[in-house]
Design brief:
The chain has 232 residues and is mainly beta. It has 3 helices and 16 strands. The protein has 2 domains: 126 residues, no CATH class; 86 residues, PDZ domain (Pdz3 Domain, Roll). β14 and β15 form a beta hairpin.
């Protein structure tokens, strides 16, 4: 039996996924922000951590998943399915979104338009059905980090501005200073929407040296920084 898909108001592309069991509830996978999807070797589902919030360490987002219970499944059932799916994609963890919870599917038909559906948390005359929906983010924890604390990108227009340095980092000794902007890492744009950079983060190892392209005022130069272990 082909299941009806549920619609989720969420930015970015959407692709439908299916797992072997016919008893599984409806699910939808949302690719990561990067233009190229990141695929990793599968792992054991038991090794995928279930977190209520994203780790404080540097992470690589490899997508998110929405699962709608359609047969009286419990929250644990949904989490088990989410872990199995995350394991298939090679994720280290799933982080439960605050959007998870009882949700109502509504039907809408604008004047002169075709009918559609949407997921909301309110009741209405157009309610079709209600169910528990679990939203989780899928992520990988890189082994290494630059050892640099960056300013909030929402406040810097997306630019990677140095705010400070973590314990064990040699970035300051290498010549970096607060206020510097890092534009490239080993020739790759430091951009979460560029899968090449995200893949670099996944494969980098502590002790490895990264060449950073740094902009200070109107001058650009390169700085070699030793990567440190990615710890909280």
């Amino acid at each position: 039996m082909i299941k009806k898909l549920f619609a989720v108001a969420m930015a970015g592309g959407v692709c439908t996924v299916s797992l072997p069991s016919a008893a599984d509830p409806e699910q939808r996978f949302f690719p990561p922000p990067s233009k190229l999807e990141i695929t990793l070797p599968a792992r054991e589902a038991s090794s995928v951590e279930v977190l209520k919030t994203a780790p404080r360490r540097s992470v690589v987002q490899i997508g998110s998943l929405g699962i709608r219970a359609d047969g009286g499944q419990s929250r644990e059932d949904l989490l088990d399915l989410a872990r199995r799916f995350a394991a298939q994609r090679g994720a280290d963890f799933i982080a439960i979104s605050e959007r998870s919870g009882p949700t109502t599917l509504h039907f809408s038909a604008p004047n002169g338009g075709h009918g559609g559906s949407s997921v909301q948390r309110r009741r209405s005359m157009n309610a079709v059905s209600s169910a528990d929906v679990l939203y989780v983010g899928l992520g990988v924890i890189p082994k290494a980090a630059l050892g640099i604390e960056f300013a909030n990108r929402m406040q810097t227009g997306g630019r990677m501005i140095v705010q400070g340095f973590k314990s064990g980092s040699n970035a300051a000794q290498a010549g970096l200073a607060q206020g510097d902007e890092i534009t490239l890492v080993d020739g790759l744009p430091m951009d979460v929407e560029d899968a090449r950079y995200e893949k670099w983060r996944i494969t980098a190892q502590p002790g490895q040296t990264a060449r950073l392209t740094v902009r200070r005022e109107s001058t650009e130069r390169t700085v070699d920084v030793r990567l440190i272990a990615n710890e909280e």
